[in-house]
């Protein structure tokens, strides 16, 4: 039986003051969320602080990115071992903002995925199509290509300890959520594709939905058979809203 995971991707938002307030709020409410898992992914510089603030709660911490290399002359990058030492359990890889704004290729995302596993972190692999790709009917091709980059490098068994986040790019930060049926269709496609290679991995893997999830639409989305929680952007910055989304997942 899969346990749903709701993760907040804070992106490049916050300050020491605001993360303190947010974490106080989340901690106060997290004790009543026992039926699903909760994680937050702060900007890297705040990770140690957030790990400290989360202490004593069930809130797990993840990074928003990770270097594909393990150490050395990679200015500006952060190694998996460092994230692990700082207290991370998860590492987001291949977020569409990284792919689109910073030119991360499928191959680089796959290498970052591999680095997370080497460090003992659970990668949250983001996949998803652009609006034009949805409109020209290539959603499944795009998602399959993004998954295959990882499977070709690491083998399907690498997905046994990974999370997939399906985030249609046109739904991110736009207020335009995929309908539960639209999302379910792609989630089922992902699970069926994995099942063709390994039925157990396909059955057990957590596949989150991301893209304009709010307290008001979370229950409907999470009620679909292949949607195992969410990766939440804007709505993760308010404790009450995020907790309501976590509650919808349990
Ligand atoms: P929004 O929830 O703000 O649409 O962002 C989704 C996202 O990109 C999470 O990674």
Task: Write a concise synopsis of the structure shown.
It is built from eleven helices and eight strands.
Can you tell me about this structure?
- The chain has 250 residues and is an alpha/beta fold.
- The protein has one domain (5-248): Aldolase class I (TIM Barrel, Alpha-Beta Barrel).
- It is built from 11 helices and 8 strands.
- Strands 1-2-3-4-5-6-7-8 form an 8-stranded parallel beta barrel, surrounded by 7 helices.
- It starts with a strand and ends with a helix.
- Residues 9, 95, 167, 172-173, 210-213, 231-235 line the site of 1,3-dihydroxyacetonephosphate (13P).
Radius of gyration: 17 Å
State the secondary-structure class. alpha/beta
Q: Please name the CATH topology.
A: TIM Barrel
Order of helices and strands: EHEHEHEHHEHHEHHEHEH
Q: What separation lies between the terminal Cα atoms?
A: 13 Å
Main beta-sheet strand count, sense and barrel state: 8 strands, parallel, barrel
Q: Please, how many domains?
A: 1
Oligomer: single chain
Q: Which kinds of small molecule does this entry bind, naming each only once?
A: 1,3-dihydroxyacetonephosphate
């Amino acid at each position: 039986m899969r346990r749903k995971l709701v993760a907040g991707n804070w992106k490049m938002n916050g300050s020491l003051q605001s993360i303190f307030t947010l974490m106080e709020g989340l901690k106060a409410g997290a004790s009543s969320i026992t039926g699903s898992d909760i994680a937050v992914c702060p900007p890297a510089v705040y990770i140690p602080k957030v790990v400290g603030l989360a202490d004593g709660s069930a809130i797990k911490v993840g990074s928003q990115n990770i270097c594909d290399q393990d150490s050395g002359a990679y200015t500006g990058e952060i190694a998996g071992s460092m994230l692990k030492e700082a207290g991370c359990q998860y590492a987001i890889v291949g977020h569409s903002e990284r792919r689109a704004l910073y030119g991360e290729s499928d191959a680089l995302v796959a290498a970052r995925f591999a680095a997370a596993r080497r460090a003992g972190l659970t990668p949250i692999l983001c996949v998803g199509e652009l609006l034009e790709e949805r409109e020209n009917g290539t959603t499944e091709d795009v998602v399959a290509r993004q998954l295959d980059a990882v499977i070709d490098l690491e083998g399907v068994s690498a997905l046994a300890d990974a999370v997939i986040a399906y985030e249609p790019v046109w739904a991110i930060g736009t207020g335009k959520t995929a309908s539960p049926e639209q999302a379910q269709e792609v989630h089922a496609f992902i699970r069926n594709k994995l099942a063709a290679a390994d039925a157990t991995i396909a059955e057990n893997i957590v596949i989150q939905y991301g893209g304009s999830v709010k307290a008001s639409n979370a229950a409907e989305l999470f009620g679909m058979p292949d949607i195992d929680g969410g990766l939440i952007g804007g709505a993760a910055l308010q404790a009450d809203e995020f907790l309501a989304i976590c509650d919808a997942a349990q």
